[in-house]
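Below is our example:

___
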Amino acid sequence: MLLICNHCKKEFKPQRTNKKNPQKHCGRECAVDARRKQKDVINCIQCGNETANTKFCSRSCSATYNNLLAPKRTKVYKNTCKTCGTPTNNKHWCNMACRPSPSYKEFRSTTNERWARYIAKRNNQTPVNEDIKALQEFYKTCPDGFEVDHIIPISKGGLHTLSNLQYLTPTENKQKSNKLNWHG
């Protein structure tokens, strides 16, 4: 059985034999070309080239057109920098140059206290009525060459309280580790 292509008028043998929806074109090229001719040819909005598409000849022209017409977004700032007063979305400072740098000792003591408090909180070992400011001050006033240690380790059920803290040298603290009955 041979059919005649609707586009090029050549005879062809159909690849599918569907009686309800017979094949109309001899190949993909004819089908695409016929579809293009059915559409009205217009000029691309961006570059002016002829196209069968509704507005643009390519994705590139579409993107260029949309980027040129996109409204310029203005930033809305929520806060101002505490040091220089410039608008910023950060909570306190606009950049690291404006942020006052704490001393290394203060930074480490704060970090160590927060970590100990986190572990104790995770294990429900910080009492609700414990003075957090006093704990932080204990860590900050740790003498040089010493570390803050829990007398009864948190891993053994000790509480993160002021009465359970002591100063030890790093060597003693490593020897003690998480032992309950240790005498250095």
Q: What stands out?
A: Residues 104-176 form one domain.
